[in-house]
Design brief:
This protein has about 425 residues and is of the alpha+beta class. About 55% of the residues lie in helices and about 15% in strands. It is rod-shaped, with a radius of gyration of 45 Å.
């Protein structure tokens, strides 16, 4: 069955309606069979009696005109019954048996009712005038067409109304679940959804109320986390500033002083990473059409001079994308910093970087010429506080840079990909959805 709740509910209702209609149709046929057979038989008896009376009381010279008029206007044909006529009996069915019994009860037990005479189809009924016998030929469609059209019309109306009802019921059942699923997806993307309506059946009200409470609690926890980290940052950076000043004033040895300053700067950078990771991302309402190439070019241009990096750019024009420019700038800076720390070209103390933009699909690529990373560790590198053991000996950090990029990618409905480049090095791609 289809995966959607709507289509599953709809198909189950259609199957139930189909089974109900089939049972109703069969029951109606059984209970309606006798009245319908009597109605057809009554029509036959009436036509035969009227025809016999008309022939008996009409002028012999005008009988030919009377027979022609009956054939043309009433589709009733009268033929002489000959002993040599080749007849085909009625098909065996409950309705035909009831109809034949009723006709013979009214016209006589010697009345013959057949399906065809001499190869001509219809409903043929015999009657006699004195010693002469005749056939009255009815068009079978004339006796059954009205009934068939009624069945077809009522069946189509009933089926249409049933399908419309199935669609309405399926939508009513599926709508609360769809709202809940959409809100859950927005929560996963870091977007605060609007409150779900707490109305409807008891189960739906309870589920929506619990979800709304959960969203409020998550928002409170997020606010508490940001406040906690901001407080820790303030409390830690104040003594770090004092340590930096004391190191400059109190440590006479140049090497020791520089080492202490480097440690302090590293601790300050780690605190900054924690704050960046905990900082709430921009909502999609704050997104705008931005020039991806211009953002990357401006970010690279504003980088401080670093003799440990050689940057090559390949910035191609890219059509405008919906994004938050500050967060895209953060993506570029984090990818460059990650490459600077861990992507040094083997045998050198320099990181060779290539930064490029492409239009189809819109994406940013940052490639280094370093040792790369094992294939089985690629997915793990996007998780918070994750660094390769081999990287720890080269540089230190909190292991949050790539995690921040992954969070920004989820908010922008983009993909963040890591892959080992042919010929060595690591390629990081930030890929927007195709327009």
């Amino acid at each position: 069955m289809p995966g959607g709740v709507f289509w599953r509910t709809f198909l189950l209702l259609v199957l139930l309606i189909g089974a109900s209609l089939a049972g109703w149709f069969q029951s109606f046929r059984v209970f309606e069979r006798t009245p319908r057979a009597q109605q057809i038989a009554q029509t036959i008896v009436s036509v035969v009696n009227v025809t016999r009376a008309a022939l008996v009381h009409s002028d012999v010279a005008k009988r030919a005109d009377l027979l022609a008029d009956l054939a043309n206007n009433e589709s009733i044909r009268i033929y002489p019954l000959e002993p040599s006529d080749v007849v085909e009996p009625q098909r065996e069915s409950a309705s035909n048996t009831l109809m034949v019994d009723y006709v013979r009860a009214r016209l006589g037990t010697d009345t013959r009712i057949v399906r065809s005479v001499n190869g001509r189809e219809g409903l043929w009924v015999s009657f006699s005038i004195d010693d002469d016998e005749y056939w009255v030929a009815f068009e079978r469609d004339r006796l059954e067409a009205v009934q068939g059209l009624q069945w077809l019309g009522w069946g189509a109306v009933g089926l249409s109304l049933s399908l419309v009802g199935a669609i309405v019921i399926s939508r009513l059942v599926n709508l609360p679940l769809k709202r809940l699923a959409t809100a859950a997806v927005e929560i996963g993307r870091g977007v605060r959804p609007g409150p779900l309506p707490e109305k409807g059946p008891n189960e739906i009200r309870a589920a929506n109320a619990s979800f709304n409470t959960m969203v409020e609690e998550l928002e409170r926890i997020e606010a508490d986390r940001v406040l906690l980290l901001a407080g820790i940052s303030h409390d830690l950076r104040t003594p770090l500033t004092r340590l930096r000043l004391e190191a400059e004033l109190s440590v006479p040895d140049e090497g020791s002083r520089l080492a202490m300053q480097a440690d302090i700067e590293q601790m300050d950078a780690i605190i900054g990473q924690f704050l960046d990771y905990a900082k709430p991302l921009a909502t999609r309402d704050a997104f705008d059409d931005v020039d991806l190439t211009a953002i990357v070019r401006a970010t690279v241009t504003d980088l401080p001079n670093d003799s440990g990096m050689r940057i090559t750019t390949d910035l191609r024009p890219v059509a405008a994308v919906r994004a938050h420019p500050t967060e895209i700038q953060r993506v570029v800076l984090n990818l460059i910093e990650n490459a600077r720390r861990y992507g040094r070209t083997p045998g050198t103390d320099v990181t060779d970087l290539t930064i490029a933009t492409f239009d189809s699909p819109p994406r940013i690529e940052v490639r280094d010429r370093g040792p790369g990373i094992p294939v089985d560790a690629i997915r793990r590198m996007k998780q918070p506080f994750t660094r390769l053991d081999t990287a720890r000996s080269q540089a230190s950090g909190a292991g949050l840079g790539l995690s921040i990029v992954e969070r920004i990618a989820q908010r922008h409905e983009a993909r963040f990909e890591l892959d080992n480049a042919p010929g060595g090095g690591l390629v990081a791609r930030f890929v927007f959805a195709a327009r």
